[in-house]
Amino acid sequence: MGKPSAPSRERIVAGAADLISRRGLNAASIREVARHAEAPLGSTYHYFPEGKQQLATEAVRYAGDAVARVLRKELEAGPVAGLRAFLGLWRGIVVESDFRAGCPVLAVSVEEPPGEAAAPALVAAAEAFATWERLLTDALCAHGAAPDQAVELAALVVAAVEGATAMCRAGRGVQPLDRVGRQLEAVLAGALQRAE
User: Fold this and answer.
1) Long-range contacts at 185-193 (CB < 8 A, ≥ 24 apart)
2) Which of 6, 72, 122, 136 is most buried per CB count within 10 Å?
3) With contact defined as beta carbons under 8 Å apart, do 101 and 93 qualify?
4) 3-state secondary structure of 27
5) What's the pTM value of the predicted model, to 2 decimals?
């Protein structure tokens, strides 16, 4: 295998998202990100002159957008299909990483921001969660759920799946996602059935 070509900005951002999903924000230094992305340290500083917070913010946005793309596509087939895709995405990540990776958005959310309450990476995490919830809410409303109920169900889905993903990592097994998935599917199906 040849030496990787010059690192792109996107490859460094993707590497940062992956590293944060594995080690958390505080353990993901610029040096570690560069090593993980197989990028020269100088290139990393060139692309991210504001340092770790800039890189972390962009990594969270990158991960949030990637999940939103999957949700957007799968929700076209309905809320239950979107839920299954959301669960499948996180199941794939934890299994393929041998339970070493989870959600970088969650990882940034649970670590204390350095110095300021509204750290840009934390704001980006809140925006990612809000986007996922909005996509689920819109799909639920489009399939007959009452708007107030749709908002609550979307929050339940995101919170439960994110929590189950963390539990999978801790317990080194997929049972939490499977259990949560079965219950969420029943809740969504019931809500949509009542809406008919």
Assistant:
1) 185/80, 185/83, 185/84, 187/153, 187/156, 188/79, 188/80, 188/83, 188/140, 188/153, 188/157, 189/80, 191/140, 191/145, 191/149, 191/153, 192/79, 192/80, 192/140, 192/143, 192/144, 192/145
2) 136
3) yes
4) coil
5) 0.90
Per-residue pLDDT tens over the stretch 55-97: 999 999 999 999 999 999 999 999 999 999 999 999 999 999 9
DSSP string, 78-137: -HHHHHHHHHHHHHHHHHHTTT----HHHHHHHSPPSS-TT-HHHHHHHHHHHHHHHHHH
- Domain spans in the chain, listed from the N-terminal domain onward: 60-195
Q: How does DSSP classify residue 48?
A: -
